[in-house]
Amino acid sequence: MTQAVTADIAIISRITAVPAVLQVICETTGLRFAAVARVTDSSWTACAVLDTLGFGLQVGDELDVATTLCHEIRSTRQTIVIDKASTDEQYCHHRTPRLYRFESYISVPVLRTDGAFFGTICALDSNPTPLKGTAIQPMMESFARLLAIQIESEENAQCTERALEKERASAEVREQFIAVLGHDLRNPLFAITAGAELLTQRIQDDKQQAIARHILTCGLRATQLVRDMLDFARGRLGAGIPLNLEPCDDLRTALEHVASELQRVQPQRRITLEIGPVAGVLCDRERITQLLSNLIANALDHGDPLGEVKVRAALTDGSFILSVHNEGAPIAPQSLPLLFQPFSRPLSGTPREGLGLGLYIANQIALAHGGHIEVTSSSEAGTLFSFCLPLDRPATATTPPANS
Q: Could you give the angle at which helices 17-29 and 136-202 cross, rounded to 10 degrees?
């Protein structure tokens, strides 16, 4: 038996309607043997059997297809109906009825939905039975069409199951990659930035102080790049950006700390804050500060170098609103739809640092929380990114879709 035939037997065994179909055929016709057979150019194989005749065939048993009438059906794709083989003009001298000792017989072709031949649904008995001209033939042909649809459905389900298994295996590999990347890169980078920060506090020489600050700045940028890549991998390839939601009583302090860190890295820029009472917002504190950090970094990178960056946070109209405003050239209208796409770049010839993931990740964090980010930009009003988080949303965060 070939692997293909074995697979077809397994498919038929998973179609729960098949035993009932064979039962209906036997009860309707009075025939005591019925089967679904897989028929190839060299073999007849039983895929499902109902035998109260004692015919002796079981699932998986094979016959030489040349000794069966199904061999003819495979060629003609026409139903064969015999009431009494011993007196039938066409089959009275045929070797198959004598070989298998049957008088009454009916067999209909099972054609796949693409027209390919699968096999037959057949029934027989050692006693003659009036079958021709009755409703039995159209009934069995309807069963054959139904079976063909079920076979295709089961095959599609198996393909989907195999794809899911493959995806699960790939997901495990991706998760391992993310874990290794996080451990092998973030830990040494943390050591570098911590050491550089310690040096900036202890070194008195201006030249050495500048070198230490440069190391610190580069380390922080590399750390951010690794963090962005990890979040991109989780949000785009893995299970989504994870959140730890809880009421945040120190959100104001956390937001101020983010702005202070970025101000320290770029002391020549001016970052102003207007933060109202925001205690108790249900959110992931670390992710919200990451969102703010990405928005401020975007404003510092793309805004007017001489203009200030304004950060505002407040509870307004049942929502937590966190906004970052910068002055400078407005964002081109054709660029607005692309801002939150990964690896996006401004449509200009000016080289920019980074991977272009900051706004994408900020938006993914907003979506995971059940909120959203809006942006407006004009030459008169500057550019404003606003994160809006409804306070009455469900407590369970959702993972943003991978193509968001």
A: 180
Q: Contact 17/150 with Cβ under 8 angstroms?
A: yes
Q: Considering only CA atoms, which of 116, 86, 119, 113 is closest in space to residue 105?
A: 86
Q: What is the pLDDT of residues 161-214, one digit of tens each?
A: 888 888 777 777 766 776 676 667 777 888 888 888 888 888 888 888 888 888
The CATH number of domain 3-160 is 3.30.450.40 = yes
Tell me how crowded residue 388 is: count the other CB atoms within 10 A of its CB: 16
- Buried b vs exposed e over 51-85: b needs ≥16 C-beta within 10 Å? bebebebeeeeebebeebbbbbbbeeeebbbbbbb
Delimit the CATH 3.30.450.40 region(s) of the chain: 3-160
Say which amino acid occupies 21: V
Distance CA 214, CA 216 (A): 5
For 41-94, write each residue's pLDDT tens digit.
989 999 999 999 999 999 999 999 999 999 899 999 999 999 999 999 999 999
Give per-residue pLDDT as tens, 325-350. 999 999 988 888 888 887 665 544 44
Residues 227, 213: Cα–Cα separation, whole Å: 21
- Residue of 65, 54, 34 lying closest to 139 (CA atoms): 34
Average pLDDT over residues 298-304: 91
Percent of the chain whose pLDDT exceeds 70: 89
Length, in residues, of the chain: 404
Sign of CA dihedral 167, 173, 177, 183: positive
* First CA to last CA distance, the chain: 49
The CATH number of the structural domain formed by 241-404 is 3.30.565.10
Contacts of 268 (CB under 8 A, 6+ apart): none
Q: In whole angstroms, how far apart are CA 27 and each of 20, 121, 184?
A: 10, 15, 70
Count CB atoms within 10 A of the CB of residue 167: 11
Residue 311: CB partners within 8 Å, gap ≥ 6? Answer: 255, 259, 271, 272, 273, 274, 275, 292, 296, 322, 323, 324, 325
Angle subtended at Cα 30 by Cα 25 and Cα 32, rounded to the nearest 5 degrees: 80
The C-alpha torsion from 147 through 148 and 152 to 153, rounded to 10°, is -30
